[in-house]
Amino acid sequence: MSSRAPRSYPYVRDPGDLPLLRGEGWAGWLVTRTVVWSALVLVLGSVAAGLLALLGLWHPGVAVPVLLLLAVAARYGAAVVPVRPLPVWSAALLVTFSLAAATWAGVTHSEQVLPRRDSGSYLQSAIQLSSGHSRPITVSPDSVGGSGVLAVPGVTLASPAFFATGTPKHPTLQPQFPIGASAWYSVAWWGAGRAGAAWAPAILFGLTVLAVGWLASTVVGSRWGPLAAAGTALLFPLVHVARSTYSEPLALPVLAAGLVTMGLAARSARVVDVAIARRTAVVAGVLLGGAVVIRIDALREVVLVVPVVVLAALQRQAHARPLGVSTAVSAAVAFGLTWLTSSQYLGSIAGSLLPLVALGMAVCVLGAVLLLGARRRWAMPSLVQAWLARALAAAFVVIGLVLASRPWWQVVRQSAADPGARVVAGLQARQGLAVDGGRTYAEHTVVWMSWWVGPAALVLALLATAVLAHRATSAWVDSHVLPAWTGVAIVTVGSTLLTLYRPGITPDHPWADRRLLVALPTVVVLTVACAAVASRWSTRRLPYAVNVAVSAGVAGALLVPTAWATWPHATERVERGEWSAVDHVCAALRPGDVALMVDSRAANEWPQVLRGYCGVSALSTTSALRGDPTRMRAVVDQVARAVDARGGRLVLVAADSPDLVRRLGSGAPVVVVDVRVQEDARLLERRPDSLVELPVQVWLGRGE
After folding, report:
1. How many whole angstroms separate alpha carbon 360 and alpha carbon 194?
2. What is the pLDDT of residues 374-385, one digit of tens each?
3. Residue 24 — pLDDT band, cuts 50, 70, 90?
4. For FRET with 277, which of 269, 376, 425, 645 sits at 20 to 30 Å CA-CA?
5. Residue 331 included in any domain
6. All residues at 6 or more sequence positions from 289 whose CB lies less than 8 Å from its CB, including other chains
7. Residue 540 pLDDT more than 80?
8. How many angstroms separate the CA atoms of 120 and 159, rounded?
9. For position 415, what pLDDT does the model report?
10. What angle, rounded to 10 degrees, do the helices at 179-219 and 22-54 form?
11. Which of 543, 565, 587 is the last residue of a domain?
């Protein structure tokens, strides 16, 4: 049998069906099954966690057996996905880059314990879920001095990322964000405590690198997957989130697996089997829609699946209906669970969700009109057919140029009354910039991208997008079946453009670069596609040495700027030492203590840490109460008496300075922590390249 025989079998159900594939079949099978199975486990486990947490049953005795059963079910789900043969050397490189990325992120993991950012909020939510077993979090009023204390204006259980719900007699707390990430980090906490929580996102980052490499191998070519994996592993924004407990390390491998599975469903309908295509489409829909229970921004990708389904339905492709139904059902279930477990959070981001809902409705209406028109045999005018492909390709180029040129002609602002505007104004003042807190800096999003991949990669990605748009539209106009990669391109490019237009995040870097975590891998894969096309073109027309130089040049345009931008951050350990600081505070408190946060930084950072990790009852004060010293003193005395009446001790906690503890308490304040850690800079107009000092200080005092 010729060594080229496997190329006649582009997709197979199982390597056992084609024994002559030998290594290529098993390599492709291993990568495919690993990525799809892992993504299904993440989605199904997140849904199960939401249901069990609502019932108060998220503890190891119930959760672990359920997760094991779901892992078995996911194995059968992954088995329906067709396998594309992959050379052993390519699969080996994918696995090598994935393991290297996971090891790098794990060894340099951060210690973002305090909920100053989303990573700390996810961690504290996971710790609370691992020990409390339910969502919302139930709080006994007697543990904080009785329901009368919670009825005092200015005294609250709430803190950033933890909303106070319920009533003073039946108080509860509702953590921010969908439950999926917190649930899986709580599993890591059960397994290995703080080490498990530190390494879990790093391991998931390795899975992301493998998934993106598999995506490139599928849509570009098997020998190009390792280049995409390497480019993804070097992206600092991805490394940054992989070092801490964010939601993105879970969401990205799920999204990548869903996209590739969607492309395989389209391909399978033509070259494998209609039944396999439909089952594969169901798996894709479960992954794409179910990702909402991990990261609410996945709704954007769900909306972009609608035009994919409409185009497939217009061509009567077998996978269209199952893809649409499974995506809609899984997204509805995921959003419903998110509403039940995080309704306060969804209400707080309504301003961002409503435009997305409006876009989804508009896309659905347009899709319905097109489907109705197809039934009535509407046809495009011949002039439109002649120019559509070129017009669409040109439109993408124009859109890219408009987005890139925005800093020259636009300043994007939001309401100056928005809480984020006050944060931005403070950052501007400290960085010597003109104070304009309403600025979102959204006009600079293409510049943000260029920081991490370089301008050459952005140009190549834009050209690749235009070419892909031309090819897909030409196939449509000529009544040919759309290429299998069309759906993948629509979702990834569409998500990238929407993000670049409206990132919707406080624009301080590197934190704000989280919004680019779909866009950046998209640029990587598009640039790799350019390298593949350049290689194939030069192979036919140029000498071998020139061919190698062309391919290496395009690859270098991606890898060199990316590695250069990431190098200053290669060994960073953000907020290292914070665990030790938290342990010191916990050790200074004893059973029966009720901690009351008396200044703004203590109220922002410590309530849930003391409540969830230290196991100490905690209350906070509102900014309005802290702004009235006379009333503040009276409230502290009232709370102290209520706590004392129940045999407890009120402990005043300050993290800004000891002054309030000294004025409000009896005796001198005690310094229990006074350390300096290193945190990421918060820059607005340039790429960060170093860490800055962050003081962590806590004073304790006894309430009178």
Report:
1. 40
2. 888 888 888 888
3. low
4. 376
5. no
6. 302, 305, 326, 327, 328, 329, 330, 331, 332, 333, 334
7. no
8. 13
9. 81
10. 160
11. 565
Q: Are 207 and 255 in contact (CB under 8 A)?
A: no
Same domain, 631 and 492: no
589 and 665 inside one domain: yes
Are residue 620 and residue 558 in the same domain, yes or no? no
Whole-angstrom Cα distance, residue 623 to residue 646? 27
Half-sphere exposure of 242 (CA within 13 A, CB side): 31
Specify the amino acid at residue 465: T
CA neighbor of 181 nearest in space, from 37, 377, 341, 55: 341
Kindly state the tokens that stand for 376: 């009535």
End-to-end, the C-alpha distance of the chain in Å comes to: 88
Cβ proximity of 509 and 684 under 8 Å: yes
Residues 6+ positions from 270 with CB-CB distance below 8 Å? 481, 484
Question: Which tens digit of pLDDT belongs to each residue from 55-76?
Answer: 999 999 999 999 999 999 999 9
User: At a CB cut-off of 8 Å and minimum separation 6, what does 122 contact?
Assistant: 177, 181, 182, 185, 245, 246, 247
Do 13 and 83 have their domain in common? yes
Q: Would you state the pLDDT for residue 14?
A: 40
Residue type, position 355, single letter: P
Q: How buried is residue 499: exposed, middle or buried, by Cβ count under 10 Å (0-12/13-18/19+)?
A: buried
> Which of 75, 74, 51 minimizes the C-alpha distance to 62?
51
For residue range 73-122, list pLDDT tens digits in order: 999 999 999 988 899 999 999 999 999 999 999 999 999 999 999 999 99
Beta pairing class for 171-175 and 162-166: antiparallel
In a domain, 613, yes or no: yes
Token pair belonging to 298: 């996945």
Indicate whether 544 and 637 sit together in one domain: no
Query: pLDDT tens digits, residue range 116-147?
Result: 999 999 999 999 999 999 999 999 999 999 99
Q: Are residues 547 and 645 in the same domain?
A: no
**How many domains does the chain fold into?**
3
Local confidence band at 702 (pLDDT 50, 70, 90 cut-offs): confident
* Dihedral sign for Cα atoms in the order 125, 104, 41, 346: positive
> Coil, strand, or helix at residue 502?
coil
- Report, as an integer, the average pLDDT of 365-388: 88
Statement to judge: residues 583 and 559 lie in one domain: no
Q: Is the N-terminal amide bond of 201 cis, ω within 30° of 0?
A: no
* Nearest in space to 179 (alpha carbons), one of 34, 311, 43, 270: 43
What domain range is 610 assigned to?
A: 575-703
Task: Report if residue 144 sits inside a domain.
Answer: no
**Tokens found for residue 9:** 């079998």
